[in-house]
Sequence to fold (266 residues):
Amino acid sequence: MAAGKSRTKKGGEDLKPQIRIMFRKAIAMGPGKADLLEAIAGTGSISAAARKLGMSYRRAWLLVDTMNQCFDNPLVETATGGSHGGGARVTELGLEVIRRYRDMDLKATAAVSRELSEFARLMAKSPAHQPGR
Amino acid sequence: MAAGKSRTKKGGEDLKPQIRIMFRKAIAMGPGKADLLEAIAGTGSISAAARKLGMSYRRAWLLVDTMNQCFDNPLVETATGGSHGGGARVTELGLEVIRRYRDMDLKATAAVSRELSEFARLMAKSPAHQPGR
Fold:
């Protein structure tokens, strides 16, 4: 019964808080967008980043578009080589946003660590459960 | 140019952190599920709660099913009157989960309030922007 990468003995190993930053009606930044930004920074391409994260190019492009609209300046700039081929780079602002988001995520997680371990007692015990969304 | 219910003068009025509690691969609790639980508690019915929140019955049912699978005991119990008609009630555990989630949300938000106001400076200035997801 391999429990995967369990980090603690009790039910808490599977519990993880995530923070999203909502801007008006949109998710300006969250775990998925932060991962995507990092993957674009690493690969220099939206399509390579999408492949790396197992998402469609279209979805990655939409996430980038939302981010770029939420912020005062673009987080990702695409080169003029066409939609798929031209390459993309994360701007200075984009790198700053990743840093600030990761910092907020850590602080928020730390702030609820005690509550989270109490919450863990309430969770399903059986690893057989594999709930969907 | 009515800016809606703006709470502060600067860009921060539109910024709001949200916390989700991930359990394995599922969202055990988040803003949407907490609102749904409260609406079920208030209406005594999944379908009435879904209508109140403007979501489909099917979506509400799936969210309830995910919550019930994530926790050790059900958060919502449905009466035996059929899928739509029988009524539903939020269990004691469900009410406890709502309280704990709202408490975590407040603590996490408070923990990042300074970071959030710095983040606000980076956001789009024009209210004309209406980014999607």
